[in-house]
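User: Can you help me understand a structure? I only have the sequence.
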Amino acid sequence: MTRTDHPHLPGTHPAASTPRAVADAFDPARLTQARQLTTLTKKEVAEHIGVSPAAVGQYETGSTRPRADLIPKLADLFDVPIVFFLAGRPHGKLDASMAYFRSLRSTRSFHRDRAASYVGQIWELTYALEKHVQLPPVDLPGFSGGEIHPGTDLPTDPAAAAAALRRHWSLGTGPVTHLVRRMEAHGIVVIAPAEADPTAPSVDAFSTCRLPRPLVVLTANRADDVYRHRFTAAHELGHLILHADIAPGDHRQEREADAFAAEFLTPRASIADLLPRRMDFTRLAGLQRTWGVSVKSLIYRCRELDRISDATASRAYQRLHRLSVTPGFRPEPVSGYPGEQPVMLRQAFDLATSTTGTSLRRLAAELAWKPQRVLDLLGVADTRPVLRLV
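Assistant: Let's start by predicting it. Here is the structure, written out as C-alpha cells:
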C-alpha cells in the first residue's frame, strides 16, 4: 500500500475536477489499475484515446503524463470519474506475484493482474470504511499486521498449524460452523462475488497477506457448492497461516494448504473413528451435513487416514460421479448458508450510512469512484426498475 499526499485530493480543491489539474497530478499507477481491471492491452487503450501503445506505456511508468485532452477519454474508457487518476489517496497496490491463486497453472497472467487490481480496490474500500466504522481487529497468528498477538507464530506443519489455529480461535474439536463468518470475525476480509466472471473462468480463488489486512476472494467460477466453497475458504486460510512470508507459485504450497484445510475442517483425532472402512454412502452423506465437507473430500480423507485402499477409493469416486445428480449428493448453493457468505464490508457500509452521516456519494467521492462501483464491490444489487425502450 502506498500513499502520496497531494493537495488535489478529490473533493478538496475546486480545480481538482478539471482535466488540466488531473494531468498535472496524474498517478501512473491508477492507469495501470484501471487497465488491468478491464483486461485491456496498452494497444487497445492507445487505439481508444488516439496515441501510440508506447505512449500508454510511458504514462504507466510515469516517464510522461497524458495531455489534458486525453483525461476525459481515459475516464470514459474505464468508466471512472476523471479524478480517479489523481495522485494523493491510499492505493492498494498488489502485484499478481504477491497473491496465492488456487488454480495457478490455468490462470493466465492478465487474469491474475486483474484479480490483483480487484483485491487492491477491495482494500481501498475497506480502508475508506474503517475511517467511519471500527472493523473487527485482525487476529491471525503470524500476520505481521495483526492487532491481536501479532508476534504469535503457528507450527509450519499444515496439520499442526490447523490444530493450533483451532485452539487459538477456541473452535474445539468438532465441526466448524459458519466458517466464512468466523474468518471475518477475526479481521479477515472475505469477498465472494455473487456472479461468476465470464472473462476469467480459470480464476478460482485467491488470497494475500501483503496488504494491511489479510484478504480472501472466493469466486463463483467453478461451482456453486457450499461444501467446495468452505474447503476453498479453509484452503486460502491455510495460505494466510503457512505462507505469509513465502513467495507464491510453489505447487507444494497448494498441497500444504489442502492438508491444512482437511485437518482444520475434519481433525484426524475427531473424524478418524467416524469414517467407514467400507464405502457407506449414506453414512458419508450424513458426515457431509454434520461436518460441512463434501463426500468427495471425505472419501479422500478415508484414503489419507488408511481407512480404505486406493482401489476402493477409485471405485467410490466413480460411484459418487453417478450419484452427483441425486438429492444429498448434488451441489448445494452457498446462498442457502448465510454463515458462509461474507457480510463484514456490507454491514460496515450500512452502519456507516446509518450512524455517521456517510452517504454512498460521499464514500464514492473519497475513493474517486462512481457510486455504482462501490455498490458492485459491496455486492449490493441495483433495485431500480429497468426502463426498456422498444
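Now, to help you interpret it: The beta strands are 100-101, 189-191, 205-208, 215-218. The first strand starts at residue 100 and ends at 101. Let me know which part you'd like to focus on.
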